[in-house]
Amino acid sequence: MKLEEKEEVTLDAVDMKRPRNGEIWDFELDMPMADGGAGVILGLDGGTTSTVCICMPLIPFSHSQPESLPILARAVAGCSNHNSVGETAARETLEQVMADALSKCGSKRSSVRAVCLAVSGVNHPTDQQRILGWLRDIFPSNVRLYVQNDAVAALASGTMGKLHGCVLIAGTGTIAYGFTDDGKEARAAGAGPVLGDWGSGYGIAAQALTAVVKAHDGRGQDTMLTSSILKTLGLSSADELIGWTYADPSWARIAALVPVVVSCAEAGDEVANKILLDSVQELASSVKAVVERLALCGKDGKGAFPLVMVGGVLEANRRWDIGKEVVNCISKHFPGVLPIRPKVEPAVGAAWLAWNFFMKECHREICRS
């Protein structure tokens, strides 16, 4: 047996602790020993709605051609935000999606060289350290581990792995996050629905539900939202909305009503239109706060900077284009804004980050030796 193989057996048998739900990794028992090649990297994007894991080979590749990236496998699981589902469920989801990706491409944990996990709910260094602890229980000690907020991977998906500029995510939740070339960072919003992420899908839909209840009570303006939402949910009366809402008040379930709000606004409903206009202002103000704190626009306020736009709320497939309106609003303050709609998903951005972080660390180690 070669020396490299002996070291790998040691890593497999000793260094990779068997998690509580160890059956997730049982597929490795039937796999042949790794061949000692370049290895693979994992990039994870974990949000409130879903978690995606991308597996890529640790080889040089062109960042400038995202459509031809050497993706080995892609796996999808549920929510991995520990604030939404709890730590145990979040950890199990992360383990499962990584195991699925490795299994699909015929790799095992001893083949992994770097992992970048970008997940919503990472809002403080203590969140990073806790999740790093989870990952260290799973992977060999030689694996480079990086934990970021999911907004960081979304930014990287539009800048080809470079952490510079601002990203605006507006899906179930919303956040604006920015980086300068020298590593300074800032964020705005992203505090969840209770603390007022009103530009998010949840915020838009929650305001629509509130408008329906107010109209039913006689406290608000009549709106097309009433008939449209009731039809969508299969309800016969606005009174039933209370039971429907609190039967399962999950953020994603509420946010799924955004297309109804957009349709009503496109049909000329004043209430729906105002909800969307307010959401545009909320989203634009988040970006404005980040850009000003980091001076991304330069001293004169006219400098160019990338604005990566991610999330279902910002998709440009409707006449009432929320993303376009947000850009128009931001352009009035920062004429140098360069809107980018990524060609790859945030999980690929996370894999790019893992690759870049790994290469930089290796370069530093070579320089020190």
What's this model, at a glance?
By secondary structure, the chain is α/β, with parallel strands linked by helices.
What do you see in this structure?
By secondary structure, the protein is an alpha/beta fold. The chain is built from 13 helices and 10 strands. The strands form 2 sheets. Strands 3-2-1-4-5 form a 5-stranded mixed beta sheet, sandwiched between helices. A hairpin with a 4-residue loop joins strand 1 (40-46) and strand 2 (51-57). The radius of gyration is 23 Å and the shape is globular. The relative contact order is 0.14. The model is unreliable at 1-20 (pLDDT under 50).
Large-scale geometry:
globular
Fraction in beta strands: 15-25%
Rg, alpha carbons: 23 Å
Q: Helix fraction?
A: 40-55%
- Which structural class best describes the helix and strand composition? alpha/beta
Termini separation comes to: 29 Å
> Which consecutive residue ranges, at least 5 long each, have pLDDT under 50?
1-20
| Largest pleated sheet | 5 strands, mixed
- SS field, number of helical segments: 13
H and E order: HEEEHHEHEHEEEHHHHHHEHEH
Mean pLDDT: 88
Q: List the strand order in the largest sheet.
A: 3-2-1-4-5
What is the β-strand count? 10
